[in-house]
Amino acid sequence: MEPREALAVVTQHAFEAASGADYLRLERAEAALRQALGRLEGLEREAEALRAREAALLKRIALLEGAQARALALLYDLERALKGGAR
Prior knowledge:
By secondary structure, this protein is mostly helical. Helices cover 93% and strands 0% of the residues.
């Protein structure tokens, strides 16, 4: 059961048992809980987007590290070639 469904079930039973001032308090509590669930869902979407961005950045870092390693190897080879030609 999803959180919004659970809230609806609990709220429905509470409304059936409520009377007078309790009914108004229950409406306010339901609104507050729905708002909190909405914020939570928004935060979950943001967290998922951040996880996807992190994964993309990690892939990019890996590519950059590979390019850096290849560049260093080429520099090392060039240095050896230059030292060998200077002899």
